[in-house]
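Memo to structure team: turn this sequence into structure tokens by end of day. - J.P.
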Amino acid sequence: MPADFDPADQGFRRLRVEVVNGLVRATLSDATPFQECLGEKSWAHHTRTHSGHTLEFINPAQGGAVMPTISAHVRLLPAGFETLPRSATDDTVFVVVEGRGSAEIAGETVPLAERDILMAPSWNAVRFRTETELVLFGYSDRIAQEKLGLFRERPG
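Reply from structure team:
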């Protein structure tokens, strides 16, 4: 750029980018915040996540799942958090590492505390609610189903 170049003289406007849980909005306007554009119901939906903060365990030797037919992850749910319901074809076992809360599976609420084990059967909607920060270890047959082209999931 020449030394005397001034972006203000060129009519350039600053692009404002906002990201909310993977939803991206880019605008040249300063008039309306993202939250107002989405509306109250959409904002509430997009500021929650289906599963909390999830870390998938990966086999460092080949970059895939931990075992050929088993997927494993750890999940952190903040205190006072409620996930959106999620249904999937995989069967998942959850172990409570620490914290307290509850799980709702197929309309039944189960209290959760440290060392509890919970089974989430295929296609049963699962929703977690926390009292304290909740850490869950989970494993499932998801990777086997993905390899066979059978895995599906949906909200609720």
